Amino acid sequence: MDLRFSIVVRYIGFVQLVLAAFMLLSAGIAYANNIDTSYSPLLLSSLLTLVLGCFPMIFVPSTDRISQKEGYCIVVGAWVVSSIVGMFPYLMWGGEFSVINAWFESVSGFTTTGASILNDIEALPRGLLFWRMSTCFIGGVGVIMFALVILPSIGKSKMMLSNVELSSLAKDNFNYRTQTVVRIILTIFLVLTALATIALKLSGMCWFDAVCHAMAATATCGFGTKNTSIAYFNSPLIEWILMATMVISGIHYGLIYATCTGKHNNIFRSEVTKFYFGIIASAAALIGVSLWLADIYPNLFTSLHHALFHTVSIITTTGFATADCNEWTSFAILILIFCSIVCACAGSTSGGLKIDRLLLAVKMMRNRLRRQQHPAAIFRTKIDGIPQDRDMLNTVMVYIVAFMMLILIGTFLNTLFGADLMTGFSAAVACASNVGPGFGDIGTMDNYSAMPVITKANLTFLMLFGRLEIFGLIQLFFIRWWR
Amino acid sequence: MTGIRKRVTAGFFSIVVLLFFSGLVSLYELNHMSTDIESILAGNRRSIELSESMLDAIRANDRAVISYAVLQDTLYADSCRTSYEAFKAKVAQARSDSNKSAAVLFDSLESYASLMNMAVVQLLDSHVIEQQSIMPDSLNLIAFDGREWYDEAYLPAYNETSSAILRVVSDARTSLTPRAERLSRNAYRAVTPVFISLVVMIAILLMFYYFVNIYIIKPIISMNKSLGDSIRYKIPFMTKTECRDEMQELKEKIESVINNPKSLK
User: Fold this and answer.
1) What is the pLDDT of residues A135-151, one digit of tens each?
2) Which residue among A48, A207, B19, B113 is least packed, with the fewest CB closer than 10 Å?
3) pTM (two decimals)
4) Contact A448, A104 (CB under 8 A)
5) Cβ of residue B254 closer than 8 Å to a chain A Cβ
């Protein structure tokens, strides 16, 4: 089937209507906050986005069949167009938002990276802060997931959107129809956000901060409302609540659903989840002991607490901070960089390489060694006792190589335009994995504002590549040659 | 409204809404800018006028003092008092027109001015100039040097008063900066929404062109070609449309007429 551009435009239009609704909600918050300075920019942006979203829907009739090619175009197109439209409120408000800064902040939000160019987040009015959180919330659920909910034809059609939206591994874990998948993701997402909001409110945050931080934690984005991130609140209880939210958000949503509904294949049985918890515990313990031995914190418990918070924050690609990690030991920084690359489980809102792929790669390496010892034996790579086919394993290895190449190219470009090696490398890792904060000049208590314009542009492309799992974006350029 | 008409009207309506919207925002922000510009200009003009009138008044006072004390022209004695009163009046007017934040500067100005005036009043009250002017030089026991008095008793206070006037003027001009900044912000806010509206409008125009082309123009061309082929070569009328509106109906009606001529009877 030929690519129907009009269908692609129609469904991208749907997504823009969701954006318009969130802009209107943010304008409502600005109105409630004594009509702050973001009220008119948000209202005007909402109107423009509404017209932009409605227009294709007037012309293009709905369809009950969407091809794989169209699905790819809708996902990638929606992400790019949403990032452009998401700039409108920032640009109209002004302040620190130049065109490149607005683009960076918007892409960072929609890809749930959480990297920021803002020197003074607290100078932003509440309406604009809420819009900033909304971008990561929408990005977290997946722009396309929103669109799918309102599409009447999802159940009938073989939608291929989830191929890009979720990693291929995650898709295989779902044994449900697309419509069910969308419902599961939305339900888990909303319930988790609501629970986190209530818990944060009870632990001492105001309603606004509680909602914003719950949205950012569930979407594993890491945008905050304070310049010093979570360190501002100086509350271990808040940190534990956010840690729990981030850890849950980093687990495959299908597994969370299965656990909640009492199914056999649940979090406690999943090999991937066990590996995920194992890596978090090991990394936190190693970092904690390293910090304690280096006398950075007064006692082992405080060292372990900070280490655990930052490990969870980085591995789930959230990016919240309670301390300046640049002050930590090189060993701790190295482990955190490893966590930034590996990240959490497939089927969650986190980015990066995904822990599933790491587990498969480790098992493949083990099988390779065993095969050298027993050349005649047949070894199959299994996850949860299920043998994985050769194509899947090849795809995993190709993805790992492609991801490493992406980081290498990103580092090369960052250093070419003036960044030092640590800043350049960690910026490439943090953006390609959608983590947000890195090390060096872009540490947990710093931001990307000092980066040159061209580096900021380069980093936004890394974010998009990372979010769309590299090939999702690359394939768009070869759409006409698809068969 | 029917399908095609509804779509085309909606297309044009969207463009009109955006044009209206961008125009409205521009007008609103330009109106704000105009008010701010007028306010800045008026403030600047008032600041210049006040500074000129205060400086004129203090110079008039200075001329009178020089004529009286240095040139020892007793006719200027009253002029010394009246010119100072005129200067005081100008300062009072400037104080009433200025911001509350400038009160400290005005207090300082008035204290220097009163020091300056005190020296003149003491000289006037001593009548030393008058005595010196009516006595012959040989009998003049009080040797009063007007130039020395001017340099030592009067000039330092005069200079301080002049500096205080300049500080008041400078403060008045500084107080215009926030307004100028607001003006710059308004200019940005007038331009950005219009620019964004124009970008959205261009996107909508491109979409409009594309949709009109594939949902209206292409089906008409296709049906025309197919109908021509059908009449000329007696082949079945075969055409494909993606729309579900009057075009689809037209196609089906033509198909039914061409492929089943008996249906006309």
Assistant:
1) 999 988 874 464 344 33
2) A207
3) 0.79
4) yes
5) no
